[in-house]
Amino acid sequence: MEKKIEQNKIEELKAMLSGSKKILITSHARPDGDAVGSSLAWYSYLKNEGHNVSAVVPDAFPDFFNWMESSADILKADAEGTKVQQLMVEADIIFCLDYNDPVRFGSLGNKILSVNAKKVLIDHHLNPVEFSDIEFSYPQYAATAEIIFDILTGLNAKVSKGMAEAMYTGIMTDTGSFRFPSTTAHTHNIISSLISAGAIHNEIYDLVYDNYSLDRMKFVGHCLLNKLEVFAEHHFAVIKVDKDELAQFNHQPGDSEGIVNEALAIKGVSVAALFTERENMIRISFRSKGNFSVKEIAQEHFGGGGHQNAAGGKSTDTLEKAVQKFIELMPQYSKNINA
Q1: Where are the domains of the chain?
Q2: Which parts of 132-221 are beta strand (E)?
Q3: In 10 A of CB 115, how many CB atoms?
Q4: Can you say whether the dihedral through the CA atoms of 81, 43, 120, 124 is positive or negative?
Q5: Where do the DSSP E strands lie in 98-214?
Q6: Whole-number pLDDT of residue 291
Q7: Is 237 strand, coil or helix?
Q8: Strand order from edge to edge, sheet including 134-137
Q9: How many CA atoms lie within 13 A of 52 on its CB side?
Q10: CATH assignment of 7-209, among 3.50.50.60, 3.30.420.280, 3.40.50.1980, 3.90.1640.10
Q11: What does the alpha-carbon distance between residue 259 and residue 264 come to, in Å, rounded to a whole number?
Q12: For domain 214-334, is the CATH number 1.10.10.10?
């Protein structure tokens, strides 16, 4: 079924954007392809419309997104906090892309709530916090970049090659290269339009997925050879990595991307989790196949959330305790796995 953005919301957005505005585009911490791609496509559109636009993410995104048009224009709040706070104060409109709660913007999340700017949420995650003046919240979409495309269509906007590449990247990465169940006929219709607008699908794939460092490839090998544990009886697998191992392989933003999915390629494994030790907490990525939802595990036990087949969480326990908690939880959930 073709998805539609309500026309009344499009008209409300048009009215908000009338005249030249100071605009700040924000996205979530540890930005992924959808966060960066959605932000850049929307950034290009607004700049072309004559607005004074800045885009910011809380921290660095992976180097393999640097090829996208205007990626160098994106500010990093952790490095340029004073400038970002000033932009927030001066903004007429703040767009909140690919997150459902200001806390996902990091340490400046509360600042979004306190400034006078109008707020517009554009996101595909479940259960958004009510804080925005206009809310484009559609969990049925596979990626925020899909929503951006449909909003642009509703605005009768011309999609440039650079915008098409950015949105293609967002959709490709958030659908696991169109493998996840969230991928729909509408997804492919959008992709067709983006290719017609100039996105070259094989080149984009190569730039994102065939552009890793040697350290990263060795890190992946280490995780699969030495750190992967499979619990065949309950159809799940765990990978755990400590701080010393991250340092050993010169870990950079994005280097852990996709590793948890490798465990799902094992016959009989329907749920996988990657536990990564950071300075002040353990970060966890959950993935699943089929109808089994990892969102509830992340939300109820690890202070996180996400989607049915892809979720994230965190823990302030030690790495060993956090992993053991998950291992002990899984037998009660495994009866719902159709392996």
Answers
A1: 7-209, 214-334
A2: 134-137
A3: 17
A4: negative
A5: 118-123, 134-137
A6: 86
A7: strand
A8: 75-76, 52-57, 22-26, 93-97, 118-123, 134-137
A9: 9
A10: 3.90.1640.10
A11: 10
A12: no
Taking a C-beta distance cutoff of 8 angstroms, is the pair 69, 49 a contact?
Answer: no
H or E segment to which residue 55 belongs? strand 52-57
β-strand partners of 57 = 76
Give the Cα separation of 167 and 145 in Å (integer): 5
Distance, in Å, from the CA atom of 66 to the CA atom of 166, rounded to the nearest integer, reads 11
DSSP H or E segment with residue 76: strand 75-76
Mean pLDDT by 10-residue block, N- to C-terminus, for the chain (339 residues)? 80 97 97 97 98 97 96 97 97 97 92 96 94 96 98 97 98 94 95 98 96 95 98 96 97 92 95 95 94 92 90 95 97 78
Cα 27 from chain centre: 9
Rounded Cα gap, residues 326 and 213, in angstroms = 31
pLDDT of 199: 98
What is the Cα–Cα distance from 325 to 282, expressed in whole angstroms? Answer: 12
Q: Which residue has the tokens 């999915």?
A: 261
Angle, CA of 265, 271 and 277, to the nearest 5°: 100
Considering only CA atoms, which of 253, 169, 162 is closest in space to residue 208? 169
Closest alpha carbon to 5 in 146, 183, 190: 146
Query: Tell me, what's the pLDDT at 305?
Result: 86
pLDDT of residue 337: 78
Q: Is 166 exposed, middle or buried (0-12, 13-18, 19+ CB in 10 A)?
A: buried
Q: Which pLDDT value is given to residue 1?
A: 44
Please tell me the pTM assigned to this model: 0.89
